[in-house]
Write a structure and sequence with these properties.
signal; eight-stranded parallel β-barrel; GH; about 475 residues; transmembrane helix
Length: about 475
């Protein structure tokens, strides 16, 4: 009887197991799913909080989602525009404002530098600006862009790069006063890295190797100097090793090349200035800085509104940090940080930024946009803008607040600079008595002079030179 009684109980237990196991499995799967969703939401929330600067960190959400390889092949201007746009979200300087609006009627008459970047063409066809087309007397300095940094040495992508560099140096035969520099570029890509300048400043051995190699390059190509374009040390992750390493890099280059020019291309947004630079080192070791005072506004998916590429002053309807996204604020902040005026060259663009409007009837600053407009990733040369204005019968407005023009036709919208807006910028230079102006770049100016709105070859750069030398606004 006992065994007979136990058998049904055992079968009943097995029956319970058959019913309980699927329920347990289902509950475990539901629990794991909920946990996974929670982790994903938590990671995204942390990433977004960092992106939104709530923890005083600033990581591009694109970088969080796609990694640093997303930026590997980006163009110079494209990366800078993205970095500047990220800086506009970083609001730790909203309480700082420029002390005053510079009076353009006051002028300090002296000799001003005009440094012009010349981007090495990707080929030697007639579709790109060649060295023999450059007016050797147009600029006081020609900065050939770019060499890169690899294995703690100066790296040229091809023999074409070195051939072009030699051809530019030969322009001194036409104008012996011309100074030719080589710009060396590196992008930190928003993350700690063991490449480029980051690797150079990581150890004394790496730094010594790089500086020695730079000296060899200067001698080999008979250069007048070197321009360091690190975009941007320590930004946005506050890597003090990079920030102070950049200062040490400049000091080492100055010691190794005492008779050569040493310049640095530096950021305009206030937040990047604070994160990236020891201003005392810049003031002590460089001959001048080239402030990249453009790309203040460009199309970004997280802030899809139109805005001026290189505004001289803020617009009346701007508030908070956006009131600092202009040349007047950037220059005054650099000066307030201790950079001598005479070592500041104000950067001026010869290109514009395009947007695709959502509603063509809403076409001023701050209008919603759905993406890039004409040009390559929203970058438009002056010749392309001239063609757009001439052939599309576009409406062109000159905004008095920002001293910049913009043009639109249907849903295409472009912020750009013309001779008039650059004349205001040149007057700004003369009103403050800065060291001069920098133009980026000769390649995107109308070097052929064939556009319908061009008065000559290199019309934009020529107007800057004219106003710097004489009051011709």
């Amino acid at each position: 009887m006992a065994l007979g009684h136990l058998e049904p109980q055992y079968e009943l237990l097995n029956g319970k197991k058959r019913y309980v196991q699927p329920i347990v499995h289902t509950m475990v799967l539901i629990g794991l799913t909920v946990l996974l969703v929670f982790v994903v939401i938590l990671m995204f929330s942390v990433s977004w909080m960092k992106f939104d600067d709530s923890n005083n960190q600033n990581i591009p959400i694109d970088l969080v989602l796609y990694g640093p390889q997303k930026y590997t092949n980006s163009e110079t201007a494209s990366y800078r525009a993205h970095a500047f746009a990220i800086a506009s979200k970083y609001s730790n300087k909203t309480s700082w404002t420029a002390k005053y609006k510079i009076n353009l009627k006051n002028r300090i008459n002296k000799a001003y530098n005009l440094a012009c970047y010349y981007s090495i063409p990707t080929d030697n066809t007639s579709n790109t600006l060649q060295p023999d087309q450059i007016n050797a007397s147009l600029c006081t300095h020609l900065i050939v862009a770019f060499a890169q940094v690899r294995n703690n040495s100066v790296y040229f992508k091809s023999s074409l790069d070195t051939d072009v560099l030699r051809q530019v140096v030969k322009l001194r035969e036409i104008n012996p006063e011309l100074k030719v520099l080589l710009s060396i570029v590196h992008f930190s890509n928003g993350s700690h890295t063991n490449e480029g300048f980051s690797d150079v400043v990581a150890s004394k051995e790496n730094l010594f190797k790089f500086v020695s190699n730079v000296e060899s390059v200067v001698r080999e190509f008979y250069l007048d100097g070197i321009d360091i374009d690190w975009e941007f040390p320590s930004w946005p992750l506050l890597n003090l090793e990079e920030k102070y390493g950049f200062a040490k890099l400049l000091e080492s280059l100055r010691d190794q090349l005492p008779d050569s020019l040493l310049t640095a291309a530096v950021a305009a947004p206030l937040n990047i200035i604070d994160y990236s630079y020891e201003v005392y080192a810049l003031a002590s070791f460089v001959d001048f800085i080239n402030i990249m005072s453009y790309d203040y506004h460009s199309y970004q998916w997280y802030f899809p509104l139109t805005g001026p590429n290189s505004p001289l002053f803020s617009s009346e309807n701007e508030s908070g940090y956006f009131r600092n996204l202009n040349i007047n604020s950037s220059i005054q902040y650099w000066i307030s940080k201790g950079m001598p005026k005479e070592k500041i060259l104000l950067g001026m663009p010869t290109y514009g930024h395009s947007f695709k409007l959502i509603n063509e009837a809403n076409n001023g600053f701050g209008s919603p946009a759905s993406g890039f407009g004409i040009g390559n990733s929203g970058f438009v040369t002056f010749s392309e803008t001239c063609d757009f204005i001439s052939h599309k019968k576009a409406t062109t407005i000159f905004d008095h607040d920002t001293r910049t023009p913009y043009t639109y036709y249907e849903k295409d919208w472009i912020s750009f600079d013309n001779e008039n807006s650059l004349a205001y910028k040149a007057e700004f230079v003369a009103s403050l008595g800065l060291g001069g102006a920098m133009v980026f770049s000769l390649n995107s100016d109308d070097y052929s002079g064939l556009s319908l709105c061009s008065s000559s070859v290199f019309p934009l750069t020529s107007r800057v030179k004219l106003v710097l030398n004489d009051d011709d606004l």
